[in-house]
Amino acid sequence: MTPLTDKAPKFTRDLPEARRKQLIEATARSLARHGMEGTTVRVVAAEAGVSPGLVRHHFAGMHDLIAETYRWTGKEVDRALRASLAAAEQTPEAQLRAFVDSSFSEPMLDTDLLGVWLTFWSLTRTDPEIHAIHGKVYAGYRRRLEELIRELAVERKLKVDARVASLAFTALLDGLWLEHCLDASTFTAREAAMIAHDWVDNLIAGRFLAGAKQALSA
C-alpha cells in the first residue's frame, strides 16, 4: 500500500490519469494531517505542487476529489490484503489467519491511514455518495471473509451461518484495529492479533455463537 506520508513529486507532463492519482494521494495526505475542514483545493494543490486551477481541471470540486480518494484508499487497502492472502497457504484457515496478521501489521497500522479512514466514516452518515462507496468497499471485504468461513465450515463439517460469522469477525477486526490506532498504549498489535486468532480457534472448535444459541433456547 502506498505510504500516505510520502511527499508527491512535482508534476511533469504525465498522462491525465497519473495526474489525477497524484492529486488523490495529495488529498489523502492532507486528510490525514488536517482533517476534512483543513483540506481545501488550495491545500491539496500545495501538497501536490501544482496550481489550484489544475486541481479544478481534473476534478469537479472537493466533493468529487474526496469521493475518488475514498475509492482509491479502499483499493489500496484491498491490494495490501490481497498480497497477504496470496503469500499465505491457500487453505480457508490459513487465509483467515492471514487476514488477522495483515490487519495488525504495516501498512495497516499507519496512523495516517486512520486519519483518512475516520474522515470517510464521518461522512458516511450524511453524504449519499460516500455512503454508497463505503457500502461497496465493505461489501467486498465481508464477502471475501464470508466465502472463507463458508469454505472452512464445509472443510471442517461445521454448522455455521457464514454471513453472521463474517459480520462478527469484521466487527472484531475493525474494533481492535480502531482502538489500537487511536491509542496504541491500550494493547499491542500482537495482543490484538492474538484475540482475533482466538476467535478463529473458537470458530474451528464449533463454539461460534454457541452460548448465544443456548441462551435463546432456554
UniProtKB/TrEMBL annotation:
Pfam families given in the database record: TetR_C_6, TetR_N
Record feature DNA-binding region, as residue ranges: 40-59
Lineage, opening ranks: Bacteria, Pseudomonadati, Pseudomonadota, Alphaproteobacteria, Rhodospirillales
UniProt source species: Dongia mobilis
GO molecular function: DNA-binding transcription factor activity; transcription cis-regulatory region binding
PANTHER family: HTH-TYPE TRANSCRIPTIONAL REGULATOR RUTR, TRANSCRIPTIONAL REGULATOR-RELATED
Keywords: DNA-binding, Repressor, Transcription, Transcription regulation
Domain HTH tetR-type: 17-77
UniProt-recorded name of the protein: TetR family transcriptional regulator
